[in-house]
Write a structure and sequence with these properties.
Galactose-bd-like_sf, Jelly Rolls, 2 helices, six-stranded antiparallel β-sheet, six-stranded mixed β-sheet, mainly beta, globular
Length: 194
């Protein structure tokens, strides 16, 4: 049996080494994923966010379809969350209350969200004192009867069929007196790149 050429085995070894090195290099898309290759949670709209359109109205005032995408809120002021009064529950501090919300009124708030097509488990969570109806793209996704300033009273995962690329989050908060507070955030799960 003939003896293999030394240059052939050196060439094969070099090719194997290069192939191994090439396979160990991470592509940029994969590198952006968590080290464990799991899905990651992305905050789309955080607490104390800006750009909210809002309006305060007497309790039970009918504002037809304010939660619909086509509703014209161009005359409404723009504010920053959280909405509330100074004093009352532990959230009612200057660090947390950015826009005043008068006692014994309802507040209507609207904010647009842009979500990627692969967004999963879109979650709306936050605090309301006292009650709230939470809408996404005109769908009532949660009705909250907190009664007081309870952390996490707003907490809902939006059904996937309600989601679009450009989404409208609308909330009607109701106060019974004492103090007021409303602040929410929206997160979603970004699946790992394959």
């Amino acid at each position: 049996m003939p003896k293999p050429s030394r240059s052939l085995s050196t060439g094969v070894a070099a090719a194997a080494l290069l192939a191994t090195m090439a396979m160990s290099v991470t592509s940029p898309a994969f590198a952006a994923q968590p080290a464990n290759g799991r899905e990651s949670v992305v905050t789309e709209l955080d607490y104390n966010s800006t750009g909210w359109r809002y309006r305060q109205v007497p309790p039970a005032t009918d504002v037809p379809l304010f939660y619909e995408r086509g509703f014209d809120d161009s005359e409404w002021p723009t504010g920053q969350a959280g909405f509330g009064t100074a004093g009352g529950c532990s959230f009612n501090t200057p660090a947390n209350v950015k826009t005043p919300w008068a006692r014994n009124t309802d507040i209507l708030v609207r904010h647009w969200l842009h979500l990627p097509r692969n967004a999963q488990q879109v979650r709306i969570e936050g605090t309301i004192d006292n009650d709230a109806q939470v809408y996404l793209n005109g769908h009532l996704v949660q009705s909250v009867r907190s009664g007081y300033c309870r952390t996490g009273a707003i907490d809902v995962v939006v059904p996937a069929e309600y989601l679009e690329c450009c989404n409208l989050l609308a909330i009607r908060g109701h106060d019974y007196g004492g103090s007021t507070y409303l602040n929410v955030r929206v997160t979603y799960v970004k699946p790992p790149q394959v």
